[in-house]
Specification:
Elements (H helix, E strand, L loop, with lengths): L1 H43 L4 E9 L2 E8 L5 H16 L3 E7 L4 H20 L3 H8 L5 E6 L3 E8 L2 E8 L15 E2 L1
Parallel strand pairs: 2-3
Antiparallel strand pairs: 1-2, 4-5, 4-7, 5-6
Helix pairs in contact: 1-2, 3-4
Length: about 180
């Protein structure tokens, strides 16, 4: 009787392990073939992307991009955001762009940081526009979307790309009601 009871308990445990393994394995395979692989194929079709990494996290998706030179950073990033959301049904919580910056462009970015933050918080873009126009020999562009500013600095073969979120004075993100503009 004890042997039968032990055998039944062993069978129950074995059945549980097989069922749990099947469920988790099925979820893994579904994620792999319905989310990761199709998104990977979609992102490979975007010519501006040299390399990328997408990782699902608790509260969103983390994306790292290596971009080629682009004409319009906003279009590229928003296209990627749409594709990631389509497959993961979650927003990108962290976006890192690996570009081809140098010390000179990083210095310009630092000089622009005050103008960018002021524009992001207050919505006053004239001083930013004036500062951008003062850099001769550097191709500068700033695009304004719904949630972010998209900064492009290019000089020769080097380029710096950044996405700057719109924020309030308390530090919370806001939507820009006049998004879609460019300076």
């Amino acid at each position: 009787m004890k042997q039968i009871k032990n055998l039944q308990i062993g069978l129950i445990i074995l059945a549980f392990l097989i069922t749990a393994g099947g469920l988790f394995g099925g979820q893994f395979l579904t994620n792999k073939f319905r989310v990761e692989k199709p998104l990977h194929q979609e992102l490979q079709r975007i010519k501006a992307i040299r390399n990328f990494q997408v990782k699902a996290e608790k509260d969103g998706v983390s994306v790292t991009l290596k971009l080629r030179k682009v004409d319009n950073l906003q279009q590229v990033v928003e296209n990627i955001q749409q594709k990631v959301f389509l497959y993961y049904n979650q927003p990108i919580k962290m976006l890192k762009i690996n570009d081809n910056r140098n010390h000179y462009l990083e210095g310009l970015r630092y000089q622009l940081s005050f103008y960018l933050q002021e524009a992001a918080v207050s919505g006053h873009y004239i001083q930013l526009k004036t500062a951008l126009e003062s850099y001769s020999g550097v191709k500068t562009k700033v695009y304004f979307g719904q949630d972010n500013m998209y900064l492009q600095l290019e000089k020769g073969a080097n380029y710096l790309y950044e996405v700057v979120p719109f924020v309030t004075q308390t530090g919370t993100r806001i939507n820009n009601p006049s998004g879609g503009d460019t300076v």
